[in-house]
Amino acid sequence: MKKITLLISALALSFSASHALEFSEVAMITEYQDVSTALTSADDDEIAAIEWFKGRGGKVIGTGELYNSLTGDNTINLNQYKALWIHIDRETTDLNTFLNNCTGGATGFRSEAVLSALTNYYKNGGNLLLTSHASILLKDLGRMDRYPEVIGFGEGFTNEDTFFANVVYGTWNAESIAVDNSGDPLFTGIEMQSAYRPEADGGREYKVFPLIGPGWKEDHNCFWHFDYSAGNDDPEKFKKLYADYQVTPLAIWPHISDYYGGAIARWDANTTYKGRCITIGFAAYEWSQNLTNNIYQGNIELLTFNALNELVPKTSGIVDTIDSGDAVVDTKYYTTQGIEVSNPDSKGIYIVKSTLTSGKKVVKKLVLGR
Predict the structure, then answer these.
(1) Which residue(s) pair with 168 in the sheet?
(2) Sequence-distant (≥ 6) Cβ neighbours of residue 308 within 8 angstroms
């Protein structure tokens, strides 16, 4: 697993200019009647995200509009979009209150008509970006068997530290197997910084990137801890996770040194849900830092751009070419988690390792899109 992880980290390729995101191919869904209502009534973080998305040509659809279309005029066709982005960020008291009061009520995300439409979209190959408290909806969509175990709805606090995302799992001592996601396409263009565990614990290096600087910080984590009976120090945990849920944890808080949790996670397609999903549930993922301007706002925006760019593929097939005079005699496929698959027929990103007649090994990236 360690060798595969290092191989993938070294070979992860950034998207080319020809793979630039077209915002017109994405719709953002807000729980309000329409975008005008959202821009006057939504949480400040939601408004900031909507303005960023709308300013780049993205279509914003209210659940009220979608409900009316589904039950009446049929003016909205979700299938024209390659991906949907749902961003919910709320201060409330608990999960039940959130489900009842923050998801749009009778015409909202959990209404029969809207939830059915989103579920069918996802099952039929539509892709989803669920950020902050919107990750909760993954259970309502039927893709996950439980709500996130780590959820915060608190008002927040003043803090002078910078909060980082850690992209390397398994660094608690010198012998532990590190899973390094720093080269993942989701983090393209984001500058990584090196951090180190205490010398007493092996002094292991890991990679982090900042999401929010000094100032007021809301306590809005929303992600799964993905525990297994074998414990969070089991190096086989991520393979079990992928086998059970087709999910790859990509980042967690810096103080976590084992294989706990997925504050950022990629959910690949499976036999029932043919679309892909990315969840971002860091409390540090704030679109509008209260009382100040987040000095790392650019990383919030770039992370979101990369996620949407991945979910709106422009090309299919193998990146790079093999010399025509050297034939392929054996090919193996791996997921980005390093798990070998016999035939990559689901949408996603795969690593392709080919053996040529000359004995040369060629490793490439395979992007299967819609």
Answers:
(1) 180
(2) 21, 23, 26, 83, 85, 129
Q: Provide CB contacts within 8 A for 329, sequence distance 6+.
A: 355, 356, 357
CB atoms within 10 A of CB 93: 10
pLDDT digits (tens, 9 = 90+) for 141-175: 999 999 999 999 998 899 899 999 999 999 999 99
Q: What is the pLDDT of residue 89?
A: 97
Q: Is 225 helix (H, G, I), strand (E, B) or coil?
A: coil
CA angle 280, 225, 95 (to 5 degrees): 70
- Per DSSP, the three-state class of 68 is helix
Alpha-carbon distance values, 30 to 60, 65, 138, 201 (Å): 7, 10, 16, 45
Per-residue CA distances from 179 to 7, 200, 320 (Å): 11, 21, 26
- The separation between the first and the last C-alpha atoms of the chain, rounded to the nearest angstrom, is 29
Secondary structure letter of residue 36 according to DSSP? H
SS3 189: coil
% residues pLDDT > 90 (the chain): 73
Statement: residue 7 has pLDDT above 60:
no
The string over 287-324, giving b where at least 16 C-beta atoms fall within 10 Å of a residue's C-beta and e elsewhere, is bbbeeeebebbebbebbbbbbbbbbbbbeeeeeeeeee
pLDDT for 15 beyond 50: no
